[in-house]
Design a protein that fits this description.
304 residues, Isopropylmalate Dehydrogenase, 2 domains, 11 helices, 40% helix
């Protein structure tokens, strides 16, 4: 790029570790123009190119101290402001701090997570949730839903749609000309020829064939094979099987990437950790990785 990349960074829930890990990540030096978005008192304490306040935050001031609703409102408005900047072309990418879904819901933002929320703000585009590190990439076919609902949601069309979004993003953003996809099985031993379930034969295998992906492959081996370099990404049928794999492989260094948006969005792979906020125990590693990956994707996108 002929100019410095422009990032919008939301601080996340003001009660959590977002503000402190972002301050630590930026203090290390970031070669970008950064717009910080969040509670006025917190963003003003962090050096940046521009600050956009989405509300005041005065923790600990008597019986009327702000709580979940106020925190959710500040967090939600920050995400909306960041997305609007990206959609208007005023920033090249957004990096979102960790948010508490319960607080967002209380504040009137009724989305299961950032992935679905940003897709809505972008006009209802097809998106996919990727967790990425230098060791493994995982994409979730179903995201924040109860486990009992997964078999009902796991259709061949949904798998194919997720795989197509993933393959396109790997080509356009990650520079992988011919992405190698693997589909993780739903049942133990990939169903063991129907002994432990028929979803593999009835749904997953046809979807894998349509995508040209390997699988469905048992969960207890597919992620290891990907880490050894056999696949560029693993499509995971439900949230925890994919999240567990990436966190075991790269705890504290993983990055959440929303694929399919008309702009780049990354975030750390962890939550708000409200219980340790302000104690000095928060690890900024995943936030550093999220900022670094956002900048790398901006540079790759500008080169295509």
């Amino acid at each position: 790029m002929t100019r410095r990349p422009r990032l919008a960074v939301t601080l996340g829930d003001p009660r959590g570790i977002g503000p402190e890990i972002i301050a630590a990540a930026i203090a290390d030096g970031v070669d970008a123009d950064i717009t910080l978005i969040g509670a006025r008192e917190q963003i003003q304490a962090i050096p940046a190119t521009r600050h956009i306040a989405t509300g005041p935050w005065h923790p600990g001031r008597g019986p009327a101290r702000p709580g979940a609703v106020e925190a959710g409102m500040i967090t939600g408005r920050a995400v909306e402001q960041a997305a609007q900047l990206a959609l208007a072309g005023e920033v090249d990418a957004i990096v979102t701090g960790p948010a508490e879904k319960h607080a967002l819901h209380l504040a009137g933002f009724p989305y299961p997570g950032h992935t679905e929320w940003l897709a809505h703000m972008a006009g209802g585009v097809d998106v996919a949730m990727m967790l990425a590190s230098d060791r493994l990439r995982v994409v979730l076919v179903t995201t924040h839903v109860p486990l009992r609902d997964v078999p009902l949601l796991l259709t061949a069309d949904r798998i194919v749609r997720t795989g197509e979004v993933t393959a396109q993003a790997l080509r356009s953003q990650f520079g992988i000309a011919n992405p190698r996809l693997a589909l993780c099985a739903l049942n133990p031993h990939a169903g063991e020829q129907g002994l432990f379930g028929d979803e593999e034969a009835r749904i997953l295998a046809p979807a894998a064939a349509r995508l040209g992906a390997a699988g469905p492959l048992p969960a207890d081996t597919v992620f290891v094979r990907a880490m050894r370099g056999e696949f560029d990404v693993v499509l995971a049928p439900y949230h925890d099987v994919g999240m567990t794999a990436i966190k075991v492989a790269s705890f504290g260094q993983g990055v959440n990437v929303t694929l399919g948006l008309p702009f780049i969005r990354t975030s750390p792979d962890h939550g708000t950790a409200i219980d340790i906020a302000g104690t000095g125990r928060a690890d900024a590693g995943s936030m550093r990785a999220a900022i670094a990956l956002a900048l790398d994707l901006v540079q790759r996108s500008s080169a295509t």
